[in-house]
Write a structure and sequence with these properties.
binds ligand CA2, alpha/beta, Rossmann fold, 37% helix
Length: 145
C-alpha cells in the first residue's frame, strides 16, 4: 500500500474548536491534523490532510488521491447525509475508506442517521471525537498495509 493516507474533512470542520465545544470538543482542526500526522508516523506513514467547504473540491481531492494514497479517512461533515457525488467518487477509490464522525450522529437528529458513505466504507467510527481519526489510521495501517 502507498505510504500515504488521505484524510478528507468536509464543510465547517475548519471551525472546529471555536464553537459548539459540547458537541465537537475544544481541539482545533490543526490539532486533529497533528494527531493524524503523529498516528500515521508511528506506523511509518505520511498523511495528505485536506478540508474543504465545497463538495466539488472534495470530489476532486478523491480523484487526485486515487493516484497518491493507499487509504482514505473521511469525515464529510454534512455532505455525509446529502452527497451522492462524494459517494460516487469514493466508489472509484481502489483502497479502503474509513468514515469518521466526531460526534455520535445516532444520538442526534434523525437526518444525521443516514449516511451516503457508510455502506461503501470498510469501517465507520462515530462518537470518539478526534481519537476516531487515530483509530481509523490504526485500522488502515493494521489491516491493509
Ligand atoms: O460529528 C461529525 O464529525 C459530523 O460529521 C460533523 C458535521 C455534521 O454535519 C455531521 O452530521 C457530523 C458538522 C461539522 C461542523 O463542525 C463544526 C465545528 C465547530 C463549530 C461549528 C461546526
Amino acid at each position: 500500500m502507498s505510504g500515504t493516507i488521505g484524510i478528507l474533512n468536509g464543510p465547517n470542520l475548519n471551525l472546529l474548536g471555536t464553537r459548539e465545544p459540547e458537541l465537537y470538543g475544544h481541539e482545533t482542526l490543526a490539532d486533529v491534523e497533528k494527531l493524524c500526522r503523529d498516528a500515521a508516523a508511528a506506523h511509518g506513514f505520511d498523511v495528505d490532510f485536506r478540508q474543504s467547504n465545497h463538495e466539488g473540491v472534495l470530489v476532486d481531492a478523491v480523484h487526485e488521491m486515487r493516484e497518491t494514497v493507499g487509504g482514505i479517512v473521511v469525515n464529510a461533515g454534512a455532505y455525509t447525509h446529502t452527497s451522492i457525488a462524494l459517494r460516487d467518487a469514493l466508489l472509484t477509490f481502489p483502497g479502503p475508506v474509513v468514515e469518521v464522525h466526531l460526534s455520535n450522529v445516532f444520538a442526534r437528529e434523525e437526518f444525521r442517521h443516514h449516511s451516503y458513505l457508510s455502506d461503501i466504507a470498510a469501517a465507520v467510527i462515530v462518537g470518539c471525537g478526534p481519537l476516531g481519526y487515530r483509530f481509523a489510521i490504526d485500522l488502515i495501517t493494521a489491516r491493509w498495509s
